[in-house]
Write a structure and sequence with these properties.
The chain has 176 residues and is an all-beta fold. The chain is built from one helix and 14 strands. The two termini are 26 Å apart.
Length: 176
């Protein structure tokens, strides 16, 4: 198995909606394209859904005559006011940038093992089925194994974090 290409199949995304008569229907059934946080990265990220506001608009195909796939038009890691649903295939030996988003994130290790490392060096080993509730902390994801790992994330808007008179901001630093 190549360590330079994910062994996992591309992520299929099925989106449901409503007909003009109010009946359930499938409005999208696609394989999502991969993207990468840096040009050097071999760990693909799949953006599965994106909403620009909360509460989310879930009837646009009825009110506007067609569904607008917001995931195609954003470049931010997080929407700022809505939510994101994302998948990450993490290559063996790879590490994400050290980062903080001002979001409440739900993460699930779907395949493999991953280490969550916080900014002061605290490390938590995670295995398949483990979950993380990430509450705006600086962190990195490390795959310290020889096998690929797959994680799923749901990110939602959160209020800013205020500590000792300072407001914490979104931050991204290169992996070490």
């Amino acid at each position: 198995m190549s360590s330079t290409q994910s062994p996992f199949p591309p992520v299929r995304r099925v989106v449901t909606g409503h007909t003009p008569a109010g009946k359930s229907t499938v409005i999208a059934d696609t394989v999502q394209p991969a993207r990468y946080f840096t040009p050097e990265s071999i760990s693909p990220v799949y953006d599965l859904h994106y909403t620009g506001e909360s509460p989310a608009v879930i009837d646009a195909e009825i009110s506007k005559g067609e569904w607008v796939d917001e995931v195609k038009d954003h470049t931010e890691v997080f929407s700022g006011n809505g939510s994101n649903f994302r998948c990450l295939d993490l290559a063996p030996g790879s590490v994400s940038p050290l980062h903080r988003t001002i979001t409440l994130d739900y993460a699930i290790v779907f395949r493999g093992s991953v280490t969550l490392e916080l900014e002061e060096g605290e490390r938590i080993a995670l295995k398949e089925g483990d979950t993380v509730i990430q509450r705006g902390t600086m962190h990195t994801w490390r795959n310290e194994s020889t096998e690929w790992a797959k994680m799923y994330f749901v990110m939602s808007r959160a209020k800013p974090i205020h500590i000792d008179g300072q407001t914490l901001k979104e931050e991204f630093h290169e992996a070490e």
